[in-house]
Amino acid sequence: MKNGSQANPGRPLDGIRVIEFGQLLAGPFAGCILGYFGAEVIKVEPPGGDPIRGWREVQDGTSLWWRSIGRNKKSVTLDLKQQAGRDVAKKLLAKADVLIENFRPGVMENWGLGPEQVKALNPGLVYARISGFGQTGPYSQKPGFASVCEGISGFRHLNGYPGDVPVRPNLSLGDTISGIHAALGIALALIQRQKDEQHQGQVVDVALYESMFNLLEAVIPEYSGAGVVREASGTTVTGIVPTNTYCCEDGKYVVIGGNGDSIFKRLMQAAHREDLAEDPRLANNSGRVVHEAEIDAVLKHWCAGQSAESVLNVLAEYRVPAGPIYNAKDMMEDPHFNARALFESVEIDGKPLQIPAILPRLTDTPGKTDWPGDKVGSHNHQVFAELLGMDETELQILKTQGVIL
């Protein structure tokens, strides 16, 4: 791992080479994070490209999503179902620091590219594996899409309204959260490799259902210690009052978090309910939980009588945490989002496109977007010829065999 100079600190992962074999979302998002913070990410795609290139909104044959998740990656093509493709993959892994894959457990081993099989080539390789249910255990071979894993993780049980069908957020949360977990695991493994005298790598085993399980806060100890099974609670949070979403006179929604004792007093004062602000029944959270329906009715009535802007202005004056429900348009027009540089501009065939920045924010060695997701195989020659030293004859043979584009 190379260290940047003080004059030009660079980025935290400068000098780290990542080979990304994953497709769709979890593995590619992990690679996106690493590339944003300086890693050289070589994305290995089948000759037809990663399917996400064609998902959702497509312009000029490529999804807008790909421009974001494929940023800073060198795209190469390899048909790993052919031995010739796997042979080239091994050459790449011999020169890599990190491998990311999110195939079904056993696929990489069947291709001769499993952790133990490539260890002889590169004992320092950090081998990150993302799957639905992990590499071991009775469910390891089950198909594990984000929707399925969010369900079994316990997350979906809590998401929705009591007595109704569990709700899916309109995002692939299991994939994205797993990508973040994988990036964290890779960073930890690289730190450990640096500390290890032999500079040995290790396997990072990330499961989608476990990544979502990791978000469950007190759900498990509450059941173990008190026998309580937390249920769905709509727009509220069980055991914390008041925190809810309210509709205003103009049809817009606001979120109000007034669950601190002193905050609750200010909230009731803002709503012209000084009687409740001083009510001893509501002086602490446990009392407010008992009287949640009464408090929510007051806030619902107060919000319904004025615009969202008016509600938020009053609550800001009383220093009560509150905010609007934003969509994409709202976010992109918001001055705070823009002041915090949450949107980065890239150019696609001469046309500007805004894509989201990748967090966290580092003050001294920040990440950045160097280029948007490029065309399939756009870096074949650079990687295969310049990095691996393959000549034109070898490349032409691979093209003829359909191993590369």
Written description of the protein model:
By secondary structure, this protein is an alpha/beta fold. Residues 1-5 have low confidence and may be disordered. The chain folds into two domains: 17-215 and 343-401, Rossmann fold, CATH 3.40.50; 243-247 and 253-324, formyl-coa transferase, domain 3 (2-Layer Sandwich). The protein has a six-stranded parallel β-sheet with strand order 5-2-1-6-7-8, sandwiched between helices. 39% of the residues lie in helices and 15% in strands. It has helices at 26-36, 64-69, 83-94, 107-110, 115-119, 146-152, 155-158, 173-195, 208-213, 219-226, 261-270, 274-277, 285-290, 292-304, 308-317, 328-333, 335-339, 380-387, 392-401, and strands at residues 17-20, 40-45, 58-59, 62-63, 73-77, 98-101, 126-131, 203-207, 243-247, 253-257, 322-324, 343-348, 351-356.
Q: Can you tag this structure with a few keywords?
A:
about 400 residues, alpha/beta, formyl-coa transferase, domain 3, 2 domains, six-stranded parallel beta sheet, three-stranded antiparallel beta sheet, about 40% helix
Q: Give the amount of beta strand, in percent.
A: 5-15%
Taken together, the total number of domains comes to 2
> What is the highest CATH level, the class of the largest domain?
Alpha Beta
Going by helix content, strand content and strand pairing, the class is: alpha/beta
Task: Give Rg in angstroms.
Answer: 25 Å
Q: Give the averaged pLDDT, no decimals.
A: 96
Helical fraction equals 25-40%
The description of the largest β-sheet is: 6 strands, parallel
Number of DSSP-assigned strands: 13
Number of helices: 19
Label the overall shape: elongated
